Structure to design on (1062 residues):
C-alpha cells in the first residue's frame, strides 16, 4: 500500500505543475501585470512610473513564461511563472499582492468554513441516508412515490431560494436565529445553526435520491434475501448489512470532498456573513490578487488529490476484497 | 421482535433530547435578548453604533488609503490639520488640529516674498505655515511604550519576543505622547517612500517642492541599505530633509508648493496629510511583524476620537473611543433649517458621543437590509432590491418613506452627491470627435436623444438629477434654475427644464449630414461604437436602453463589452469612440471637475483624467485662469463661460448627479449628510435604551410554528412506523407459518 501511496503522490507533481501553469496562463490572459498594478494602486492619479515601481517591487517586471534575454536555464527560471510558483511546492504561500500573509489568512478563515461544512456533512449523511433507507424500505408504495416526488421538487429549487427563504422564515418572520453574522468559539452555534439546517435540507433531494438508488440495488441482492430468511430484523438489515455493502459508492462521493470542506461555500458564507474561505478566492479574483488566486487553486488541487487518494484507501477499509497495488 | 421498536423508541428519545437541547441552547444562549440578535447579550443597552462593510479595506496607512471604504476608518482615527465644517453648506474648511486654516503667502522665483494680490505668473512658490494645537495626544499604542528608564519597550524585538504575539492587542504595554509638527512632516515624507506607492505621490510631486527628488534619494538609500545586507531595510526619514516640508518648531511646520495652488488646503483635510509618529514606523518594521500581519497598513495609530481595536476584515472591525482624545465641541452654527431639523441640539457638547462602533462584514444586500429593519443596524442605504419596500414616489415625483417604515420611526435623508456620471466622446475619433461643426452637431443631437430623466427613473429609482454641465450642486460655479440650464439640450418651461423634442435632434442630425441616420456623402447608415464594461443581466438592460436612445436618431449603436482592464487600456490608447465614466470629487472646488476636460490633462497624450481627450484653447486658457482664483463673482463669470464652451462643443453627454439616500432609526441623531467630510462619526449620537426597547418589541420570538412543524413531522413518521410494524408483524406470521 505504501508503494501505491508513494506512486500516487508522485503522479500528483506533474498534475500540480499543470494546474499551476493553466491558472497562470488564464489569469494573465485576462490581466496583464500592468492591470494588476493599476488595480492595487487605485483608480485615480496613477502614473506610469508608479505602475513600473509596483511591478518591480512585486516581481511582475519579468517576462511571464520565457526570458529571452537570459542564458541557459535562466531563460525559464527568471520569469514570473517560475518565481511565483516554485515556493508553492514547499507550501510557502508568501504574501498577497496587497501585503497580507496568505498562510495566516487561510488559517484564520478555514475554521468558520469548517464550522458550517463539517456539521452539514455529518448531519446531512445521517438525515439523507436515513431518508433514503426509509424510501428503500417502503419501495413501490405511495410513501416511496411521495418521497421521490419530494426529492425531485427539492432538486428543482435553486439553492439560493433555500437560503433566502430560510432567512426570511426563521429570522425575519419567526425571529428565532440571527439572519447573518458570526462569533468565534461556542457562540458560533447560533450563527451556524440555520446555514447547517439549510445545507442539510437543500441537499436532501439529490442525496436522498442518489442513496435510494444505491440501497435499492443492494436490497435486491441474494445476501439480503438470505438475511431476511434467517429472520434478521429489517432495520438491522438495512442499517448494518445493506449500508455496509453500499458504502463504496457512498464513500466515493463523501471522502473525496472531505479535504475540500475547508474551502467553504461561497454563496452560503456570503449570505450568512460567515468569514470563511468560500469567498477568499472570489475576492482575490475581483481584486486581481494573483498571489491569492495562485495559492488557493494550488491548495484546492492538492486537497482534491488527497481526497481521491483517501477515497481509494477507504475502499480497502469497507470492502476487504479490494487491494491497492 | 421487539428490538426494532426499542430502537425506534431510542431514536425518538435521541431526537426528543436534541429538540430539548436546542431549545435550551436558544433560551440559555440568548438570555433575555431577542433570539435573532446577532450581538452578544452583554452589549445590550450599550452606547455602541452598529454598521456594516461589504469589502475589506485594502489600506489603512494614511499614505496609501484613498478609497471610500477605507476613509470610513482612517477618517475617524487620523487627524489632518483641517476638516470640513459638519453643518455648513457650501462645504467650508475649518481647523481640526491646526489653530486656524492656513493662509498661504507667495514667493517669487528668487524666493522674495510677494505682496498679497500679486499676479499669478509672478508667483513661483506658495508657502503654508501650519500651526497645530499643543496638548493633543496619540491613542495608547505599544510603539510608544517605555520602561522605567525611558527606553522603548518594543523597539528592539526579535522572533523569540514575538512568539506569543498574533495581534497588536497581544502587546501588554502601551504608551502615548504628544502630537508634534514633526509628525506631519514625517507623513509628507512618507508620500515619497519607495515602497508605499502613495496614490497621490505623482500629483504631489508636481507641487510640493523637492518631493520628486526626495523619492529618488529615498530609493537610492533603500538600495544602498539592501546592498549592504540590512534586513529589514528601514529608512530613517528624519535623516533625509525635504525642502518643501520643514519643521519650524515643536508646533509649527511649513509646506512649500510650486506656483499658486489654492486647492492644496483641501488636501490638508485628507488623511494623506495626517500625522504619523516615527515610533510607529520603527515598531512595525521589525522582523516578524509583517509575517504576523502587524503593519501600519493594518493597525493605524492616530490622535482622532476613535482607535481601531479589532481589525478582522473577514468578520468585524471595531472602533473604540480613544481615551487620550482631547475632546472637541459640536458646532454651534450651521445653515438655515439645521436648528429646526435638530442638527443643533447638541451644540457645544463635547464629542464624540458614541463609545464604540462595530462594523460587521455583510456581503449581501438582503441580510443587511433585514437587519436594519430589525434594529440591528442603526442606519442604512437603500439598495435597488429594497427600494420599493422603503420609498414611495408620488405622482409629482416627490419621494417619501413607505407607511411601514414611517411606523417604525425610520427617517430618510437625501443629498445630491458631488459626483457625475457621463457619456464621453473621444475627441480624437474621426466621426464623433474633433472641432468640426458636423461632429459638434452630431454630439449635440445624441445629447438630446439620451433621455437621462428616463434613465434615472428606470435604472436609479429616481435617485439622481440630470446634469446640466460638469459641476454638481454644492460645488462653487454650479447654477440653479433657468440660468443653470443647458440651452442646447433643454428649454425652460413652466415646469422647469424640458428636454428638447427628438425632432430637434433629428434636425441637428440632418444639418450634420446624417439625415435619417445615413451619411449624406456615402449613403451608408451611421454606425457608432460604445465601449462598455460589464455584460451581466443588469448591464444588458442598460445597454438595450442606450441602443434605443441612439435608434431614435436611426443611429446603429454597436456596444463593445469588455472587462475594466481592457477598457482602461483602450482609453489610454485613445481607441474608444464613445464611453461612459464617472467622477467623484476629491474636494469641493470646481477645478476638481473642470480639469476633467482640460487639454493638458488628456488621457491619450498626457495620461491624465481627461478621458474625452477634449482640447479647446479658449477653455484651456480660462481653466488656467480660473483654477487658482478664490471663489467670487469673477471666478463665477469665468466658470460660466467655460461651461458655455463645453455645452456648445458637447464633448460629454452630461449624464446625471446621483442622489444619496440614507435611512436611519429614531434613536440615531445628527444624521445630516456631509459628502466631503470623512470624520463624521464623532458628531453622531445614539439613544441606546430606545434602541434596546424597539429591538425587543420588534423581535419577539414566535415559537408555535416550530411546534406545528414537529407535529407535521410526527404526522409523517407515525404512518411509517405503523406500516413498519405491520410489515414486521406480517413477516413474523409468515415465518411462524
Amino acid at each position: 500500500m505504501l508503494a501505491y501511496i508513494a506512486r500516487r503522490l508522485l503522479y500528483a507533481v506533474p498534475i500540480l505543475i499543470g494546474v499551476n501553469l493553466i491558472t497562470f496562463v488564464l489569469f494573465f490572459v485576462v490581466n496583464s501585470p500592468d492591470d494588476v498594478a493599476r488595480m492595487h494602486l487605485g483608480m485615480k492619479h496613477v502614473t506610469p512610473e508608479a505602475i513600473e515601481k509596483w511591478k518591480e517591487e512585486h516581481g511582475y517586471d519579468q517576462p511571464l513564461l520565457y526570458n529571452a534575454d537570459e542564458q541557459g536555464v535562466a531563460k525559464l527560471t527568471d520569469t514570473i511563472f517560475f518565481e511565483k510558483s516554485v515556493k508553492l511546492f514547499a507550501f510557502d504561500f508568501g504574501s498577497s499582492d496587497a501585503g497580507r500573509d496568505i498562510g495566516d489568512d487561510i488559517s484564520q478563515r478555514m475554521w468558520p468554513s469548517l464550522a458550517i461544512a463539517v456539521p452539514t456533512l455529518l448531519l446531512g449523511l445521517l438525515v439523507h441516508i436515513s431518508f433514503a433507507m426509509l424510501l428503500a424500505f417502503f419501495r413501490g408504495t405511495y410513501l416511496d412515490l411521495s418521497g421521490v416526488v419530494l426529492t425531485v421538487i427539492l432538486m428543482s429549487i435553486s439553492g439560493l431560494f433555500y437560503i433566502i427563504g430560510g432567512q426570511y422564515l426563521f429570522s425575519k418572520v419567526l425571529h428565532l436565529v440571527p439572519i447573518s453574522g458570526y462569533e468565534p468559539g461556542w457562540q458560533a452555534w447560533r450563527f451556524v445553526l440555520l446555514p447547517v439546517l439549510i445545507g442539510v435540507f437543500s441537499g436532501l433531494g439529490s442525496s436522498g435520491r442518489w442513496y435510494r438508488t444505491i440501497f435499492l440495488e443492494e436490497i435486491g441482492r441474494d445476501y439480503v434475501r438470505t438475511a431476511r430468511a434467517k429472520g434478521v430484523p429489517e432495520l438491522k438489515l438495512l442499517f448494518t448489512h445493506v449500508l455496509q455493502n453500499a458504502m463504496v459508492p457512498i464513500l466515493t462521493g463523501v471522502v473525496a470532498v472531505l479535504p475540500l470542506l475547508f474551502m467553504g461555500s461561497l454563496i452560503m458564507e456570503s449570505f450568512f456573513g460567515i468569514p470563511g474561505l468560500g469567498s477568499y478566492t472570489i475576492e482575490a479574483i475581483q481584486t486581481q490578487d494573483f498571489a491569492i488566486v495562485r495559492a488557493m487553486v494550488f491548495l484546492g488541487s492538492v486537497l482534491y488529490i488527497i481526497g481521491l487518494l483517501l477515497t481509494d484507501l477507504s475502499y480497502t477499509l469497507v470492502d476487504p476484497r479490494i487491494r491497492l497495488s | 421482535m421487539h428490538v426494532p421498536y426499542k430502537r425506534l423508541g431510542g431514536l425518538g428519545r435521541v431526537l426528543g433530547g436534541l429538540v430539548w437541547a436546542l431549545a435550551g441552547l436558544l433560551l440559555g444562549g440568548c438570555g433575555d435578548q431577542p433570539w435573532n440578535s446577532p450581538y452578544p447579550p452583554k452589549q445590550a443597552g450599550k452606547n455602541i453604533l452598529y454598521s456594516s462593510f461589504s469589502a475589506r479595506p485594502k489600506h489603512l496607512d494614511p499614505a496609501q488609503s484613498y478609497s471610500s471604504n477605507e476613509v470610513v476608518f482612517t477618517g475617524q482615527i487620523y487627524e489632518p490639520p483641517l476638516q470640513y465644517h459638519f453643518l455648513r453648506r457650501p462645504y467650508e474648511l475649518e481647523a481640526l488640529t491646526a489653530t486656524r486654516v492656513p493662509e498661504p503667502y507667495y514667493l517669487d522665483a528668487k524666493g522674495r516674498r510677494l505682496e498679497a494680490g500679486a499676479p499669478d505668473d509672478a508667483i513661483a512658490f506658495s508657502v503654508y505655515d501650519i500651526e497645530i494645537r499643543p496638548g493633543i495626544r496619540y491613542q495608547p499604542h505599544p510603539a510608544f511604550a517605555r520602561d522605567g528608564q525611558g527606553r522603548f519597550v518594543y523597539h528592539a524585538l526579535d522572533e523569540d519576543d514575538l512568539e506569543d504575539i498574533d495581534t497588536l492587542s497581544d502587546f501588554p504595554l502601551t504608551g502615548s505622547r504628544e502630537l508634534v509638527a514633526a509628525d506631519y512632516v514625517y507623513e509628507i515624507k512618507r508620500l515619497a517612500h519607495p515602497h508605499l506607492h502613495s496614490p497621490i505621490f505623482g500629483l504631489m510631486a508636481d507641487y510640493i517642492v523637492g518631493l520628486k527628488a526626495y523619492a529618488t534619494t529615498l530609493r537610492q538609500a533603500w538600495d544602498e541599505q539592501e546592498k549592504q545586507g540590512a534586513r529589514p531595510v528601514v529608512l530613517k526619514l528624519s535623516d533625509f530633509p525635504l525642502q518643501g516640508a520643514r519643521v519650524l518648531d515643536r508646533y509649527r511646520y511649513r509646506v512649500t508648493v510650486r506656483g499658486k495652488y489654492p486647492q492644496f488646503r483641501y488636501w490638508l483635510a485628507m488623511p494623506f496629510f495626517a500625522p504619523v509618529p516615527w515610533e510607529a514606523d520603527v515598531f512595525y518594521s521589525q522582523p516578524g511583524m509583517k509575517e504576523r500581519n502587524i503593519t501600519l497598513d493594518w493597525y493605524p495609530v492616530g490622535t482622532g476620537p476613535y482607535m481601531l481595536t479589532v481589525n478582522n476584515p473577514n468578520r468585524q472591525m471595531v472602533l473604540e473611543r480613544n481615551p487620550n482624545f482631547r475632546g472637541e465641541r459640536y458646532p454651534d452654527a450651521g445653515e438655515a433649517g439645521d436648528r429646526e431639523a435638530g442638527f443643533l441640539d447638541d451644540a457645544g457638547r463635547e464629542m464624540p458621543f458614541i463609545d464604540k462602533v462595530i462594523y460587521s462584514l455583510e456581503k449581501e444586500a438582503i441580510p443587511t437590509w433585514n437587519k436594519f429593519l430589525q434594529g440591528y443596524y442603526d442606519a442604512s442605504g437603500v439598495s435597488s432590491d429594497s427600494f420599493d419596500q422603503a420609498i414611495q414616489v408620488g405622482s409629482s415625483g416627490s419621494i417619501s418613506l413607505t407607511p411601514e417604515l414611517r411606523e417604525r420611526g425610520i427617517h430618510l435623508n437625501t443629498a445630491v452627491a458631488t459626483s457625475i456620471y457621463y457619456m464621453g466622446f473621444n475627441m480624437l475619433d474621426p466621426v464623433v470627435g474633433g472641432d468640426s461643426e458636423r461632429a459638434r452637431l452630431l454630439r449635440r443631437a445624441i445629447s438630446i436623444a439620451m433621455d437621462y430623466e428616463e434613465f434615472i427613473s428606470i435604472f436609479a429609482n429616481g435617485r439622481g438629477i440630470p446634469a446640466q454641465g460638469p459641476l454638481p450642486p454644492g460645488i462653487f460655479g454650479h447654477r440653479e434654475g433657468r440660468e443653470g440650464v443647458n440651452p442646447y439640450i433643454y428649454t425652460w418651461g413652466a415646469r422647469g427644464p424640458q428636454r428638447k423634442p427628438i425632432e430637434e435632434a433629428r434636425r441637428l442630425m440632418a444639418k450634420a449630414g446624417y439625415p435619417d441616420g445615413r451619411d449624406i456623402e456615402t449613403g451608408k447608415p451611421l454606425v457608432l461604437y460604445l465601449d462598455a464594461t460589464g455584460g451581466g443581466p443588469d448591464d444588458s438592460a442598460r445597454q438595450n436602453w442606450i441602443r434605443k436612445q441612439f435608434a431614435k436618431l436611426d443611429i446603429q449603436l454597436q456596444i463593445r463589452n469588455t472587462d475594466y482592464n481592457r477598457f482602461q487600456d483602450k482609453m489610454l490608447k485613445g481607441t474608444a469612440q464613445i464611453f461612459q465614466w464617472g467622477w467623484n470629487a476629491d474636494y469641493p472646488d470646481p477645478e476638481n471637475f473642470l480639469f476633467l476636460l482640460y487639454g493638458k490633462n488628456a488621457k491619450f497624450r498626457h495620461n491624465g483624467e481627461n478621458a474625452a481627450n477634449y482640447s479647446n484653447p479658449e477653455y484651456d486658457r480660462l481653466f488656467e485662469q480660473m483654477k487658482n482664483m478664490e471663489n467670487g463673482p469673477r471666478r463665477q463669470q469665468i466658470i460660466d463661460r467655460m461651461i458655455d464652451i463645453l455645452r456648445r462643443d458637447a464633448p460629454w453627454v452630461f449624464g446625471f448627479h446621483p442622489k444619496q439616500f440614507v435611512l436611519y432609526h429614531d434613536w440615531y441623531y445628527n444624521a445630516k449628510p456631509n459628502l466631503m467630510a470623512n470624520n463624521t462619526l464623532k458628531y453622531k449620537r445614539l439613544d441606546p435604551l430606545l434602541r434596546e426597547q424597539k429591538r425587543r418589541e420588534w423581535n419577539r420570538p414566535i415559537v408555535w410554528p416550530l411546534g406545528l412543524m414537529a407535529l407535521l413531522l410526527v404526522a409523517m413518521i407515525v404512518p411509517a412506523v405503523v406500516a413498519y410494524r405491520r410489515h414486521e408483524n406480517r413477516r413474523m406470521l409468515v415465518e411462524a407459518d
Notes: The two ends of chain B are 16 Å apart (CA to CA).
